[in-house]
């Protein structure tokens, strides 16, 4: 094969893009490439091209970084760095006590925001879901809200995008555990419900922010496990979020394949779906669980790279540059709003050095820039992946429009962008390691000039080469070298009058019996001034379309109306504009859903309560509305044993109520089942409550309890009750009662294990309840129960804090109480 240096290559390109080396010197293939500039896919969003940053990065604040980011077109920066986010205390720029990790003392949030400002990027912040500041429980909504308060109210940074946790499905709930999660429950329903609480607390500080929830990429672990992560999470928080988050690493270490990786954006890898299939599945979930919020929920891919861990030489070869460019564009074409490559700097690893992989490197590194670890060049030296991203700056930027492009050769992938400045750019990615491909390009919907500019990056490149291109037009040839990226930027020629269409939405959801709308805009070119008429095709059965006005040069409002029996499902709708002999099209996805049925469900937490004669216990009764249900629910209870009374506070609610059970000194002992009934409108639902009433004793027993305030400050309080028992405990209900003076509920935790169920109630008093689940026991030993509270700047007086407990050991039940 003939090799050219960059100076020689530029001179050759200046003579015309159709130039080919002698046929005897290099093997050739061909491809037919079509570009339809009149068929819009999606506009490139602001903040679409991102990269991950990390608090542990020793080179994050290098003076060269902002310029390098800008040059590569990187306009989104994620912080504080993957799994580190779930052990990071932003206030102290440190790792939470008891957790592993490192935070560079220089990489404070304020320092990061300074770098963000200098690079002109959009910040994406991952709040700590996994651990609280003390390191003794899960992350809390109040701590996340305090970050929003500082960022957007105190400092005025205007951070818009906030993720709740990182890869939370890796918390051990499905077996594999790499993500810190100190919540007592680590199932998808708990995470989804907590996301709704996080979103509420954070938006109470700044209603303009967008909050995101962690999903797993469809077809990738743990998708397919029970319970379903994605559907369970979204069922709990779909109406509260603004974007969903997926991470995509198509390969696992040891299974890397250059050809497999390069094919994965289109066809997936090892049985997992390609990007179009993943996006389709995510959109379906959003439409199913997002309710009226569905059309506003965006898709963010906040981590992407070639292999899930331990990268090898593939990550620093041109193969990864091609994969990143292709994958990033394919996500955006299918409707994602942001893609963040992992990562800015990372460090060298051993990884897969198989001779079956391209290149001669002796290390792997996720970083798009070197960090000078073993075997690497000087810090901040760009890797091929950096140039793969930089190539996209020549293709398009925020506000430009991705348009239809297709190739007849599966090893030559094509992407095209209609730029806002009037240019049309085409990217060709030759995934063949051995063959030069001649692309026969046919352009429609745009008339190019005869000259333009080409940009190339290939196997031996150390930078992107540019050259003038000639011989262009509505049809021309491009020579794409093996394993290379080639971008051709076309400029408008002297064109005949024409126009293109674009729609205001890429996805539209309507319900049977309902309607939705989109604005269709006509973009004239070449002096076009005619009136355009419109038609819609691909509509599901029972859906009709109308345009107002029906013919115009500017824009029209498309209204889609679904009959009560319209076909449910997702379809691609094509809007065709016609003026004389000229036509243009734009497409969007339409989903028709069944109308929501107003309803609610009822639950009790805990669902099993034990109390002694003369004692009381509580359970939190929750109302979960669905389908737009907004009525208050009246609560009642039946099936109580003799001598046990109940009260609800409040008795009628639209959210939660505290059920208090009081057993008289002569209450009937034994086990029973009570039924809580909720009545709202014409609907009625029940929840069962297992109830155990025991004979009480206030002295003796195997256990001793002691209360003390382990922390008592202006911003954080913690009340502890320590238990020492010499014999197993088979039932226990312990409450810690704190007058709500200068404190608010934070979260509760215990060090006894998952057998303990926690709940709380807030009012004049904040009551934490710890209940030993039915059928569980506590062995002999020492244990700590604790209540956490947030302060308001004035130290809470703990003198009035109290505790009480009812427990069963050796067949006898005892009650005790005391002060903190």
Which key terms come to mind for this protein?
Immunoglobulin-like; 820 residues; 41% strand
CATH superfamily of the largest domain: Glycosidases
Overall, the morphology is globular
Taken together, the total number of domains comes to 5
- Mean pLDDT across the residues is 91
CATH class of the largest domain: Alpha Beta
Query: Main β-sheet, in a few words?
Result: 14 strands, mixed
The level of helicity is 10-25%
- Unreliable spans are 1-25
Beta-sheet strand percentage? 35-45%
The appropriate CATH architecture of the largest domain is Alpha-Beta Barrel
Roughly how many Å apart are the termini? 82 Å
Rg: 31 Å
Structural class: mainly beta
Query: Based on DSSP secondary structure assignment, what is the total number of beta strands?
Result: 46
Please tally the helical runs, counting DSSP H or I stretches of 4 or more residues: 10
Look up the CATH topology of the largest domain.
Answer: TIM Barrel
Give the quaternary arrangement of the chains: single chain
Structure description:
The protein is mainly beta. It has five domains: 129 residues, Sandwich (Immunoglobulin-like), CATH 2.60.40; 351 residues, Glycosidases (TIM Barrel), CATH 3.20.20; 96 residues, Immunoglobulin-like (Sandwich), CATH 2.60.40.10; 96 residues, Sandwich (Immunoglobulin-like); 117 residues, Immunoglobulin-like. The protein has ten helices and 46 strands. Strands 1, 12, 13, 14, 15, 16, 17, 18, 19, 21, 23, 25, 27 and 28 form a 14-stranded mixed sheet that branches. The chain has an eight-stranded parallel β-barrel with strand order 2-3-6-7-8-9-10-11, surrounded by five helices. Strands 30-37-36-32-34 form a five-stranded mixed sheet, with no helix packed on it. Strand 42 and strand 43 form a beta hairpin. Helix 7 runs parallel beside helix 9. The longest helix has 18 residues. The protein is globular and about 100 Å long. The N and C termini lie far apart (82 Å).
